Amino acid sequence: MLGYGVFSVGGGTPRVGWRDGDEVTDLSALGDVFMQPSLNALMALGRDASAELLAPARAHDGPRFHIDEVTAQLPVQIGDFVDFNSSLEHASSIGRMFRPQGDPLPVNWRWVPIGYQSRAGSVVVSGTDVRRPNGQRKTGDTPTFGPSERLDIELELGFVIGTPSAHGEPVTVDDAADHVFGVALLNDWSARDIQAWEYVPLGPFLSKSFQTSMAAWVTPLALLEEHRVESPLQEPPPLAYLDGGRDWALDIPLEIELNGEVISRSNVRTLYWTMPQQLAHATSNGAALRTGDLFGSGTVSGSEPGTGGSLIELTQNERFLADGDEIVLRGRGLAEVRGRVAPAGLIIPASYGERPIVLPAGVQALRSGNGEDPGQRGGP
Amino acid sequence: MLGYGVFSVGGGTPRVGWRDGDEVTDLSALGDVFMQPSLNALMALGRDASAELLAPARAHDGPRFHIDEVTAQLPVQIGDFVDFNSSLEHASSIGRMFRPQGDPLPVNWRWVPIGYQSRAGSVVVSGTDVRRPNGQRKTGDTPTFGPSERLDIELELGFVIGTPSAHGEPVTVDDAADHVFGVALLNDWSARDIQAWEYVPLGPFLSKSFQTSMAAWVTPLALLEEHRVESPLQEPPPLAYLDGGRDWALDIPLEIELNGEVISRSNVRTLYWTMPQQLAHATSNGAALRTGDLFGSGTVSGSEPGTGGSLIELTQNERFLADGDEIVLRGRGLAEVRGRVAPAGLIIPASYGERPIVLPAGVQALRSGNGEDPGQRGGP
């Protein structure tokens, strides 16, 4: 894999590095934009200028480290995080489970690249544990609050903005790629029980906002040229402002690994809506782009068995994450996203003492009347 | 009105000022946290430290300006922006219009303080024009793309975070106020036609993300103590993690002015869910708070005629904003939010030339095959 990231060695100052396979080269001697705690300064240079730096960066004879010697951090200072829902297969299979009475695909889906704003402050770097979230779920006549019993993953391809755009000036499908610096895999952890109870009418909120894990290394868009293919046919034809950008599907094989075993294989190229269409849609109302904005593709799922991008799809709503499970998402040529499930934290306000909390199997009962002592919480 | 903001005079360096009525005092001589382009450094001091600075700031004998002499800017560098939907009256009346077949109030509403992530990068300071957004609406058998014909306002009270919280450590209802620096009015501009077509299943996106206007002056929480009252009765009683904070309803009379005429009068105190409950909910899954995070109450609407916080409620879905309309939101003791509607920008990619765009009455037909020339766009 090839890409830029931000790393430190032995508690030193974070700086930008280039990762090539298992080797990381310190680029900080190459200029100010590389002596930074994020890629934002580099990304803000724009497509042409950052493309010119790519060859010197790859050839740079700076200090080199094995990947195991460095501590990588979140590579981007994220502005806004928008998550799309651009896989026809994922949207249909989730629709079938969440809305069993209705049409699995919402009536707007083939017209609108459906997306929503998600929580930028909850994006963390690969390798960070995910703590099982508490939340409201409806299991009986009335809802209860407690650890999610349906903690899931979502395998997504994210892209980050380099060149900003002005408020009031939409980015067209033809110009979209000029604004994108590069791509990175995302695991958009999701609590399905919390989601099912909260999402009508304003969409997913706490079921998503507890954590999204991002790869530590961002692969520049320039390196993806050879993977570009035509996207799946769109029927009906998209409206004029989305007409184009179908040459930006990406042939990138994907894998999901659970506790060392590959449980899914898919490919980014199956996504219905492409990156230029997503970006043209997201800015069609005049919303501005800032350097560091992150866009997720939505879960990438194929149509065959064993190609789902989430457990709810792979197991037909039967199996979810247990404490201690480790998930690794991989994409050919891209950096992995790794995360292990830590038990729910049980912060108990005094008033909780009076009411029972229902704990799922496998979650240790560490509750106490005192929420102050971190030792009282379940930890990894 | 009383509050902190960030201002400049004659193109000088932005700094923090204190506004008292029509007078603004330059606080930059009081210390580094006041010589800043945002309130974030001041807010990050935390509740006690910033409270200690309040008396010296109010008494400071620095340079003074009339409000008309200064240029105020967005006072906060916003992290994440979460918008709630905490008015029972607003939720019910919108539900009646958007889901005429069903129960006007979603079944989860009295259990869950419904909210969603909104777009931080689209928050602008009071006084900024709002450009009518383009977007997809469903008016016939198939959707069309063009300027919103149902551009609306939402009168909200926002609060901003001073003291951050750690990822994985929920804020309790009892501790919530310690994290809040102050409040400011918001106008969460909304395109109802775009919203109706896009919002199932992932919630409002482009119907909201084009712009939210925020007051230029933030009133510290310490100054609201005298306005605290008990919130409306909550039935059924909230779950344990939301049990408390009902002493944080705020008796703040509100007004909406359209082109100089008052068209609505309401009061913040009618909100069903309070700020501590909103914050406890938003962090109950472990999401962290960052200094600068912005939370909106959701539209504040009363139960009587003439108390709606949006035009769709005030006019029973009959009248929306016309180009040139000016809206001013006022709250007793708070800074106003002002904004004028500018005509839709018509960025026309080459491919648009082949397809018609339907323009609403009042929107000038400035379209052209060439989207490059800013002179081709409708502007204020």
Q: What is the assembly state of the chains in this entry?
A: homodimer
Helix-residue proportion of chain A: 10-25%
Biggest chain-to-chain interface with counts: A-B, 79 and 79 residues
Number of helices of chain A: 6
Approximately what portion of the residues of chain A adopt beta-strand conformation?
A: 25-35%
Query: Radius of gyration of chain A over alpha carbons?
Result: 21 Å
Please, what is the average pLDDT of chain A? 91
Q: How many angstroms does the end-to-end distance of chain A come to?
A: 29 Å
N to C succession of SSEs of chain A: EEEHHEEEHEEEEEEEEEHEEEEEEHEHEE
Structural class of chain A: alpha+beta
Strand count, sense and barrel status of the largest sheet of chain A are: 13 strands, mixed
Instruction: Please report the total strand number of chain A as a whole number.
Output: 24
**In one word, what is the shape of chain A?**
globular
Uncertain regions of chain A: pLDDT < 50 for 5+ in a row?
348-380
Structure description:
2 copies of one chain form a homodimer. The first copy, chain A, is of the alpha+beta class. The radius of gyration of chain A is 21 Å and the shape is globular. In chain A, β2 (15-20) and β3 form a beta hairpin. Chain A is 13% helix and 27% strand. Chain A has 6 helices and 24 strands. In chain A, strands 1, 2, 3, 4, 5, 6, 7, 8, 13, 14, 16, 17 and 22 form a 13-stranded mixed beta sheet that branches. Chain A has helices spanning 40-43, 47-59, 88-98, 192-198, 275-283, 311-314; strands at residues 2-8, 15-20, 23-26, 64-66, 71-73, 81-84, 115-118, 123-125, 130-131, 134-138, 143-147, 151-152, 155-161, 180-187, 190-191, 212-214, 217-220, 228-229, 249-250, 253-258, 261-267, 294-296, 326-331, 337-342. The longest helix of chain A is centred in the first third of the chain and has 13 residues, at 47-59. Chains A and B meet through β7, β10, β11 and α4 of A and β7, β10, β11 and α4 of B.
